[in-house]
Inverse folding.
């Protein structure tokens, strides 16, 4: 299989530099090439406002006339916080545009290319780079195609599928390298979710500790149908407009006031059986233009998420350890599937070695009824 040109590969690399700094916008990289030399580069960050193409064209200056622009995503043709990129490209005198993919937004998809062609600019979509470009902006692409955030389920497990021992759980299941990879996932996520059981048992902060810059604070979400969340927990004490507790109408009004006074946002979403409504939560996040949700929870929440049909992708980190025993907690608990035919099935499965551990990722094959 052929590969993208070196210039488009550089545009993709520039786009990756914007990951975590662009939501709810996509990460975009652009390179301006004249007579075989790069004369301008740019990548987008939300706080920086200006789009990658505009930054690259500014750096290129007069050299942009007659040049080729390589860009990781179709240039925008609509007015947003900045003017349309296509107009800047036309004004700069660019002769040719090579893009890795078309904009997945159905409202504007293809319109940028149409405007450029109408202005006499040659346009090419390099299909050899499309899969890479979509991967860079996987949450954005998913959101534009479905109207919902990309939901991923992460778990660190032993070879026999356990996430916790019945007694002493000091230390970690996976290696430092695997845990660093998890922090990268947190960095790439807009929101992260756990259950009240994890809060009560581990008192986590559930923050992004990747060390990378991010534009949007990681929204931490706790499922807590009875509002048992301690006001003195580390999550509550560190809340700065970045903690959402999802509960039910059966929860105590006194507990709700105490948490609200502590700076915790409360969202009531009644589901069946006294539980919170996970599909409604995903829709609520979509309404706030959160592009991704990462689940890091225990057995019960993991099963509830899978059972509800909200999960799109799994990240399971396997360590070469065996816990055994019926009392050790499995990665996915709950009622479980009643037959092999009803098991959650994965597609597009990939395996990544992380030192002595292995990461297995896969997309959830939709079940009938979801």
């Amino acid at each position: 299989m052929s590969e993208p040109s070196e210039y488009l590969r550089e545009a993709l690399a520039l786009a990756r530099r914007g990951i975590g700094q662009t939501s709810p916008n996509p990460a975009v990289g652009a390179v301006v090439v004249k007579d075989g030399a790069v004369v301008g580069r740019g990548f987008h960050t939300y706080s920086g406002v200006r789009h990658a193409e505009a930054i690259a064209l500014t750096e290129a200056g007069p050299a942009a006339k007659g040049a080729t622009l390589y860009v990781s995503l179709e240039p925008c043709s609509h007015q947003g916080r900045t003017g349309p990129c296509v107009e800047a490209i036309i004004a700069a005198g660019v002769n040719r545009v090579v893009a890795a993919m078309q904009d997945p937004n159905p409202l504007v998809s293809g319109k940028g290319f149409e405007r450029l062609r109408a202005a006499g600019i040659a346009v090419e979509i390099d299909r050899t780079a499309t899969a890479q470009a979509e991967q860079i902006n996987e949450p954005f692409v998913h959101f534009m195609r479905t109207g919902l955030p990309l939901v991923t389920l992460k778990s660190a497990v032993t070879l026999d599928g356990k996430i916790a021992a019945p007694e002493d759980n000091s230390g970690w299941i996976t290696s430092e390298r695997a845990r660093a990879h998890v922090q990268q996932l947190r960095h790439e996520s807009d929101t992260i979710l756990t259950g009240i059981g994890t809060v009560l048992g581990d008192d986590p902060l559930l923050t992004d500790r990747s060390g990378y810059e991010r534009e949007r604070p990681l929204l931490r979400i706790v499922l807590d149908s009875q509002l048992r969340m301690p006001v003195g927990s580390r999550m509550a004490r560190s809340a700065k407009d970045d903690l959402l507790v999802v509960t039910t109408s059966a929860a105590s009004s006194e507990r709700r006031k105490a948490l609200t006074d502590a700076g915790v946002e409360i969202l009531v979403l009644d589901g069946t059986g006294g539980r919170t409504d996970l599909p409604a939560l995903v829709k609520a996040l979509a309404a706030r233009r959160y592009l991704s949700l990462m689940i890091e929870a225990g057995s019960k929440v993991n099963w509830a998420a899978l059972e509800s049909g909200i999960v799109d992708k799994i990240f399971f980190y396997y360590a070469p350890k065996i816990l055994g025993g019926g009392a050790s907690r499995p990665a996915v608990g709950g009622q479980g599937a009643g037959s092999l035919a009803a098991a959650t099935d994965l597609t597009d499965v990939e395996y990544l070695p992380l030192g002595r551990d292995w990461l297995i990722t896969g997309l959830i094959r939709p079940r009938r009824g979801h």
